[in-house]
Amino acid sequence: MIGAREKRFMQHAIALSRKGMESGDGGPFGAVVVKGDEIIGEGWNQVLATTDPTAHAEVVAIRQACERLGAFQLTGCEIYTSCEPCPMCLGAIYWARPQRVYYANTKEDAAAIDFDDSFIYKELEVPHTKKKIPLIPMPDQEALAVFREWKEKGDKTLY
Amino acid sequence: MIGAREKRFMQHAIALSRKGMESGDGGPFGAVVVKGDEIIGEGWNQVLATTDPTAHAEVVAIRQACERLGAFQLTGCEIYTSCEPCPMCLGAIYWARPQRVYYANTKEDAAAIDFDDSFIYKELEVPHTKKKIPLIPMPDQEALAVFREWKEKGDKTLY
User: Fold this and answer.
1) Given an 8 Å threshold on Cβ–Cβ distance, is B54 in contact with A142?
2) Residue A92 and residue B52: Cα distance in Å, rounded?
3) A chain contacts of residue B96, beta-carbon cutoff 8 Å
4) Which CATH architecture describes the domain B4-127?
5) Is A78 a catalytic site residue?
């Protein structure tokens, strides 16, 4: 399953991780989205350059690939990332629905250079109100009414 | 903890959820970022309008607030969202580090209108290679070398 083709795309993702780090854009992370034998999206961490905490390599690459395809899903595509995705990027991957993801460094490797997203994975399992960033429920009739209207909406695009 | 102030901000988030739905931008989700008594970021789901699977209400609001602050963290801020965050948005929230999050509808309410992110929460617990979108390890010496260089980099900004 892993051959010269896959290694070539991964080396591209790793080259982006180095480029982003050297230019000071953010942490040492790179990713590419591949469709067939073509790279249709590439990204590197730009959290510092854009002061955007969501500008992780995978998110940037997914956004670019979707923009190029004019589609909000990456059906049949592959993602190559230089490091195991954090929970945010994993969530983005699920919404984008590529076929598979290849990763080089692990989250333990990331923790060893002080990018500790294993902390976030642990926090996901703690009850909402006990989280370090507490999530506080505020049930609301109007919010539910909007949901009901969506359900009954005739002309909606399902996704 | 929940008073007229909090209810006012939540109603604003809910109004955005309705506005986004009615304009066909995406699903019925809205969010605001609040600092003190000021809304510094607002978002609604724009997945369809922008063909961007990462354009969830919370992500849009966080990006806008960070751009306005010129900072990649939302220290001391609150987020009000019309629905319990999905794993991607929860990850984005952890990276942005607001003080707390208030939510109206639950993920069960979302599942009832066919936005089933509870599926993603379950997938997070499945081993990578067994996931519906498999995550395939490709350990690589060059990827580790980039991590080592980051660790030894003298002029980096830590975050």
Assistant:
1) no
2) 10
3) 53-54
4) 3-Layer(aba) Sandwich (3.40)
5) no
Own/partner pairs, B66-70, CB within 8 angstroms, 24+ separation: B66/A51, B66/A52, B66/A53, B66/B41, B66/B96, B67/A51, B67/A52, B68/B40, B68/B41, B69/A51, B69/B35, B69/B40, B70/A51
Residue from the list A48, A101, A148 with its beta carbon closest to the beta carbon of B159: A48
Query: Mean pLDDT score of chain B, rounded to an integer?
Result: 95
ipTM of the complex: 0.95
- The three-state secondary structure class of A80 is strand
Low-confidence ranges of chain A (pLDDT < 50): none
Strand partners, B44: B30
In chain B the beta strands, taken as DSSP E runs, fall at 30-35, 38-44, 78-83, 100-105, 135-137
Domain spans, chain A: 4-127
Q: Amino acid letter at A5?
A: R
pTM of the model as a whole: 0.96
d(CA A70, CA B55): 14
Q: A59 and A89 in contact (C-beta within 8 Å)?
A: yes
Contact A138 B72 (CB under 8 A): no
Dihedral sign of CA atoms A149, B53, B81, B22 in order: negative
List, for residues B68-102, the tens digit of each pLDDT value: 999 999 999 999 999 999 999 999 999 999 999 99
